[in-house]
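Propose amino acids for all 241 sites.
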């Protein structure tokens, strides 16, 4: 009989405890996080590595580049041979350029000479022939030299030339004109020679005119003398008959 109050207290306590447990389970006072603890617990705890400085990512250190090795004797010899080849190539190219320029100048002079000689020839339409005419001019110059062989040095030098030039103007007039024009083009480059040439030419032309006038006068006088002599002879013959 004495245990009945205790049994009653236990019977009353069990439902009360069960109700409190159900209330705690159904209406919890704190939020339970499955992955992380609550914030106040995180703030309350202190990491054990706070005193250590934060780790920095270290960049990979660059390994020092190996210094360039000094050139070997083979490399120095190869560089010297390269320089010598470059110098020889430059000299050969310069010599080739000079030779080409020289040959071009020679060919240009040759073309100029051949074209000049061809321009001196008379046209085909004319009856002038160079070969027999040149022989006639040469014979005339030799005859002038023979005529002036017993004279002074000035005459022996000028008479054959003058006789040859005169024969050339008579036998080869077109060719002589072309030669004179060519000589005049070269004389124009020297004004002093050109002026002297003009003076000599003017004097020669004037002398030729005077010679022609005097020759005409001499011819007229000779014709008058012949006419007078013929008249005198006719008069004598008429008187004798």
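Proposal:
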């Amino acid at each position: 009989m004495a245990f009945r109050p205790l049994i009653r207290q236990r019977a009353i306590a069990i439902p009360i405890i069960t109700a409190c447990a159900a209330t705690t389970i159904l209406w919890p006072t704190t939020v339970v996080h499955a992955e992380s603890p609550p914030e106040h617990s995180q703030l309350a705890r202190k990491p054990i590595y706070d005193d250590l400085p934060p780790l920095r990512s270290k960049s990979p250190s660059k390994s020092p580049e190996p210094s360039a090795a000094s050139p070997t004797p083979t490399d120095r010899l190869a560089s010297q041979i390269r320089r010598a080849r470059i110098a020889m190539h430059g000299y050969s190219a310069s010599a080739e350029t000079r030779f080409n320029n020289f040959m071009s100048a020679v060919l240009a002079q040759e073309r100029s000479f051949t074209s000049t000689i061809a321009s001196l020839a008379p046209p085909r339409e004319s009856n002038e022939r160079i070969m027999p005419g040149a022989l006639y001019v040469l014979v005339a110059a030799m005859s002038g030299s023979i005529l002036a062989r017993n004279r002074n040095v000035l005459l022996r030098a000028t008479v054959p030339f003058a006789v040859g030039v005169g024969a050339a103007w008579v036998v080869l007039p077109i060719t002589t004109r072309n030669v004179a024009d060519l000589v005049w083009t070269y004389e124009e480059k020297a004004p002093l020679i050109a002026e002297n040439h003009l003076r000599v030419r003017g004097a020669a032309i004037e002398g030729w005119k005077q010679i022609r006038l005097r020759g005409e006068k001499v011819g007229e006088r000779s014709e008058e003398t012949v006419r007078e002599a013929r008249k005198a002879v006719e008069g004598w013959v008429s008187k004798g008959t």
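The mean pLDDT is 78. DSSP finds seven helices and no strands in the chain.
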